[in-house]
Amino acid sequence: MIRMTHLAAAVLALAAMTGTAPAQDWPNDALHVYVGFPAGSSPDTIARLIADPLAEALGQPVVVDNKPGAGGVIGVQQMLVHKDDGLSFGVTINGPLTTAPRMIDDLGYDPATDIAPVNLIATSPLVLAVAASFPADSIAEFIDMAKADPGAITYGSVGHGSGAHLTAELFSMDAGIEMLHVPFSSYAEVTTSIMGGEIDCGFMAVSAALPHVMAGKMKMLGITSLQPFPQVPDVPVIAGQAGMPADFRAELWDAFIAPAGTDPAVIAKLNTEIDRIIQTKAVKDKLLAMGWKVTPGTPQDLADRIVADTRVWGRVLDRIDAAK
Q1: How much is the average pLDDT of 90-95?
Q2: Where are the domains positioned within the chain?
Q3: Judging by DSSP bridges, how do beta strands 218-223 and 154-157 pair with one another?
Q4: Which of 245, 249, 235 is nearest to 166 (CA)?
Q5: Which CATH architecture has domain 2-124+252-320?
Q6: How far apart are CA 10 and CA 26, in angstroms?
Q7: For the chain, where are the alpha helices, taking DSSP H only?
Q8: pLDDT at 25
Q9: Is the pLDDT of residue 9 over 70?
Q10: Topology adopted by domain 125-250
């Protein structure tokens, strides 16, 4: 009983320090959800799909604040500027929580100590896309081609450190091959260059590749999720093929986060409501149409994913740094 009394006192003290009221009285004003990307982007659309039903569940408005820049980092930074009000949260992709600490000097936060995970909302894998006329029709054939002529196969991305760049380097590392990176300024240029034969391949979102595949101009050799993806169920997973690790995975993910120090009861309440919202048919269908698969789970599931992906992409960044 004495231990429980001390624990309750500690929780109330923490709530007072962070400006967060006890969960039963929370929220007492509008929530602000900071998104580090512009209106119309995938993270913004996902945040807005959640905002209205979350507002209805909590009885307070949920305002989405777009703070684009630095690959989503500015949105996380802005959330932390307002961390003491107990009403500021974030929707972010993985980069600001996994690779940004390695790639950005003076980031201003440490994901391990400044961020409280709430929900992993959805994941979006990439596909290895090539022109329809490309001679390889499978991951095994592609890897054999690359091994036969190291460095001859070219791949495109939107620049160093982008998701497509890091995924291609992870694939190359795990497959034991070498490919030549050709950076572009937009995904549209990457796609056009693949179809035009200027480069050989690229890792891209399912939704970006699918229209060109359906038009007969491109083909998808494999996908970077651990299981087949519902939008393209016939595209084989790369994991486990042609000597690739069985746990090979490279996905963009979208998550709901809070400042560290947020009342655990508030985090639990948000997690419960967001999990319920994203598993409704309407939200699941809208996300899948965008190339995202709903991924419900606990705050600990998100924490584990951050740790695991930070480790994976750390290995890739080590490889890139060593090659400089």
Answers
A1: 97
A2: 2-124+252-320, 125-250
A3: unpaired
A4: 249
A5: 3-Layer(aba) Sandwich (3.40)
A6: 18
A7: 2-18, 42-58, 73-81, 95-98, 100-103, 111-114, 139-148, 163-175, 187-195, 206-214, 264-278, 281-289, 299-323
A8: 84
A9: no
A10: D-Maltodextrin-Binding Protein; domain 2 (3.40.190)
